[in-house]
Amino acid sequence: MSFETTYPTHWRRPPRMLRDRRWRLVVQGAVLVYLVLAMGSLDIEWSRVVEGLARGQRFVEGFLQPDFISRWSDIRQGLIESLTMTLTATVVGGLISVPIGIGGARNLVPAPVYGICRTIIAVSRSLQEIIIAIFLVAMFGFGPLAGFMTLSFASIGFIAKLLAEDIEECDVHQIEAVRATGASWWQVLHYAIQPQVMPRLIGLSMYRLDINFRESAVIGIVGAGGIGATLNTAIDRYEYDSAGAILLIVIVIVMLSEYGSSYLRRFLQ
């Protein structure tokens, strides 16, 4: 028995939401009026814009001449904290995400399990990292512990949701073929699901590693440790050359992670 995929031979325009041209003009006019009113409510002070452009010019000049030496001890300590938080949070969050992502796939688990796992995913995705960091800093105090817990909690919702969607989109024919052999649920998961989603899971984990490292620079501003505190201090002291050095380090690490992710995906495929 063969399965053939058919593709459309010509392009078809999607149906319009509003078929009446008058209603389309009304909606477009309302959007335009809203944008004009919204721009008018910003209360832009052009003198502050000019001052901001001058400060921005000094920042760009410092970025083009980064200083890695004068504050290297602080940069190194913040960098070590950020890398530690990032790696541990990605690993812990990824390990917790796998069973939750499997439970969030409708085609693998019963409805009660699906509902519980989807609720966990929704709760994890409903709060921004900076909000979670503020609560955890208030609970556990300043330091990388709050940052680690923040990034782990955020990683669960991100990886588990995308993993669940990938499992639901797996090739049904391959799953049914393994089930037809009398395989158990664990064998179906191992031989039919895992080969299809593993490269994607590795890619998601590496992508989350990038996000966690960048977020560590943000949550550090509220006291959750990492390179963000050092960056905030440098900017407050108008040490734009040191701030430029920190940003360059962040960019280089993210690029290395991206190249490593591409290599791992090619290796696994």
TrEMBL record:
Residue ranges annotated for the ABC transmembrane type-1 domain, each copy included: 79-259
Keywords: Cell membrane, Membrane, Transmembrane, Transmembrane helix, Transport
Pfam families listed in its UniProt record: BPD_transp_1 (PF00528)
InterPro entries attached to this UniProt entry: MetI-like, MetI-like_sf, PhnE/PtxC
Record-linked PROSITE patterns: ABC_TM1
Transmembrane segments annotated in the record for this chain: 23-42, 87-109, 130-159, 243-264
Main location: membrane
Highest taxon in the source lineage: Bacteria
Location within or outside the cell: Cell membrane
PANTHER family on file: ABC TRANSPORT SYSTEM PERMEASE PROTEIN P69, PHOSPHONATES TRANSPORT SYSTEM PERMEASE PROTEIN
Family: Belongs to the binding-protein-dependent transport system permease family.
Protein name: Phosphonate ABC transporter, permease protein PhnE
Organism: Chromohalobacter beijerinckii
Taxonomic lineage: Bacteria, Pseudomonadati, Pseudomonadota, Gammaproteobacteria, Oceanospirillales
